[in-house]
Amino acid sequence: MKYYMIVVDGVYVTDGSGAPVFRAVRSPGAGELQALVQRMAERIGRLLEKRGLINPVDTTAG
Question: Is the pTM of this model over 0.90?
Answer without folding.
Answer: no
